[in-house]
Inverse folding.
């Protein structure tokens, strides 16, 4: 395994600590796409692609897929580009999902599927509503949008409380006992930013005004309502583990 693949592997490992059923969620996402996408070269847009975790799973499930990954972080994009360098199936672009430029490039109904994971909670409600509209315009009629994120159970406050308690319990297990210790997330970033091969991207990242997560955890009813309003014919959770869920939406014909 080369160093760039190793970076992705350690990314996956630290993410799995925070979301222990993450791999099952990613598998559910890629499996539903594999069963629904056209056989010949389906076109997939991977939003907030990071260093390519979702892209990797989709290519395993659908080797003929053609994927465009979009992310704002130069460090993560460099890792992804190095992993798939020379692979004509995959290209990566730098853009902020809040920015309209990527929407102008890709809002022409050319994609069979749009995917994202662990990203929608970074956006507030207005930005997320706008993003859903942009995703709908990027999809062909009947195309699918699959999202893996923290999506609480709707209209079930006690079940939601139990799910939240489980998540908080997981987070407490990862809380450093001493301030000088690093969380798995912080440790991964410390190692990546110290890599001499990523020095230019680390400087670029440091100069950027990267916003913090909005920590917006809307329930499934909110997501469904906004997705239908954005132009999807239907939307529903196809996989769930406590508050973590895969929601799939189909654009109207």
């Amino acid at each position: 395994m080369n160093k760039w693949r190793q970076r992705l592997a350690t990314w996956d490992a630290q993410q799995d600590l925070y979301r222990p059923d993450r791999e099952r969620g990613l598998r559910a996402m890629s499996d539903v796409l594999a069963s629904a996408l056209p056989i010949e070269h389906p076109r997939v847009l991977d939003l907030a692609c990071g260093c390519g975790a979702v892209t990797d799973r989709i290519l395993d499930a659908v080797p003929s897929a053609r994927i465009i990954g979009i992310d704002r972080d130069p460090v993560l994009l460099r890792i992804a580009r190095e992993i798939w360098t020379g692979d004509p199936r995959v290209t990566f672009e730098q853009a902020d999902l809040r920015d309209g430029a990527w929407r102008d490039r890709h809002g022409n109904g050319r994609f069979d599927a749009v995917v994202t994971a662990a990203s929608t909670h970074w956006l507030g409600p207005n930005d997320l509503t706008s993003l859903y509209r942009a995703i709908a315009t990027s999809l062909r009629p009947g195309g699918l949008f699959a999202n893996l994120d923290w999506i609480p159970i709707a209209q079930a406050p006690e079940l939601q409380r139990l799910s939240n308690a489980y998540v908080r319990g997981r987070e407490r297990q990862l809380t450093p006992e001493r301030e000088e210790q690093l969380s798995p997330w912080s440790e991964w970033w410390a190692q990546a930013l110290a890599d001499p091969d990523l020095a230019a991207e680390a400087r670029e990242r440091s100069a950027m005004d990267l916003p913090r997560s909005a920590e917006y955890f809307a329930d499934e009813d909110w997501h469904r309502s906004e997705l239908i309003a954005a132009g999807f014919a239907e939307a529903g959770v196809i996989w769930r583990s406590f508050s973590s869920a895969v929601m799939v939406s189909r654009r109207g014909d």
The first strand starts at residue 43 and ends at 47. The beta strands are 43-47, 66-71, 90-94, 111-117, 139-150, 232-241, 244-251.
